[in-house]
Specification:
globular; 73% helix; 18 helices
Length: 332
């Protein structure tokens, strides 16, 4: 709370006091890495290593140490650590998914797909598994191929319920919105606690502009269940945008971008596209143009790319006559 209020020195004193105790608090070590890791990378490394020795089974510590290695250019070290865990057969599905994320970042998409599928099959409701698998298939150009495989599994009755969320997303990627919605509705009916299905159904309803009140309820329920998933926050922001709650939407969308950048180094282009849409609605055209440019720079062929180009041209033209842009972003 002190850090969020800009009282960094006071926040650091609280963390130092916790980390100075004889038993290291894993949460304090994770928070220190998040708040001070970039300014004091050696200290963050030391505190995370110390905490891991006290709590070797903590996934949160392992994930924080992995993120810290990525930020400090030590991706190979992070991957070796995860390889050791997997080879020792101590890896739970979340660890496999974490290694899949690293492999995907390194461009080793086949190995990443194998890890992500294994983690997904072991725990179909594992947060982030559907998002990662979909991203891997997309980067491989295998969305249509993956859809055929999942449809075949569904036709012979061997597709587990959790995989229908991914099936729905694959349908959506091929423009088959009605089938996507049917897949999501089936999962939500059978398992009302499936936050991934709620999130995707809410997003689809928002895209269609149908039943936006229900979309907001589903999106907020998904966000409460998945508070650390940027995709859930982005969906809430996009639903708010579609309902005309533009300031609230911008707050959520920028939270989603910041969290994705913190966790993965960058946010998906759709997040910036949604930010651009919202800024345009707020008539902050220079900022909107920058958001559209960022989306297209990340992926010139993402689903909303054609619309982003049109809106970028319009926003750039309008920005020439507007006052200097202001920013709601907090300083890092």
């Amino acid at each position: 709370s002190l850090y969020e209020l800009g009282q960094h020195e006071a926040g650091r004193r609280e963390l130092d006091a916790l980390l100075g105790e004889s038993t290291v608090s894993p949460q304090a070590a994770v928070e220190f890495s998040k708040r001070e890791g970039r300014r004091h990378p050696a200290d963050a490394q030391r505190q995370l290593s110390r905490a891991l020795r006290s709590a070797p089974g903590s996934y949160e510590l392992l994930a924080a140490k992995t993120r810290h290695d990525l930020e400090t250019g030590q991706a190979d070290r992070a991957l070796r650590r995860l390889d050791t865990l997997v080879e020792s057969q101590l890896a739970v599905p979340r660890v496999l998914l974490l290694r899949a994320e690293l492999l995907a970042l390194a461009g080793e998409l086949r190995r990443a797909e194998a890890d992500a599928l294994q983690a997904f099959e072991a725990d179909p409701q594992l947060p982030g598994a559907v998002d990662l698998l979909f991203a891997i298939y997309q980067r491989q150009g295998k969305l249509a191929e993956a859809l055929r495989a999942f449809e075949e599994a569904e036709s012979v009755g061997v597709l587990h319920p959790g995989a229908r969320v991914l099936l729905g997303r694959l349908y959506l990627s091929q423009g088959r919105g009605d089938q996507a919605r049917a897949a999501y509705e089936e999962v939500v009916e059978v398992n009302p606690e499936n936050a991934g299905a709620k999130n995707d159904l809410a997003y689809l309803l928002a895209v269609e502009g149908s039943d936006l009140e229900r979309a907001q309820r589903l999106a907020e329920e998904a966000q409460r269940a998945l508070p650390d998933r940027p995709e859930a926050i982005d969906t809430v922001g996009y639903v708010y945008f579609r309902r005309g709650h533009h300031e609230a939407a911008l707050h959520q969308l920028r939270r989603a971008i910041a969290l994705a950048e913190e966790q993965r180094g960058e946010a998906p282009p759709t997040f910036h596209y949604h930010e651009g849409l919202t800024l345009s609605a707020l008539e902050r055209h220079a900022e909107a143009a920058a958001a559209f440019e960022r989306a297209l720079a990340l992926d010139s062929r993402f689903a909303g790319a054609a619309d982003a180009r049109r809106r970028l041209e319009a926003a750039t033209s309008r920005a020439r006559s507007e006052p200097p842009a202001r920013s709601d972003r907090k300083p890092s």
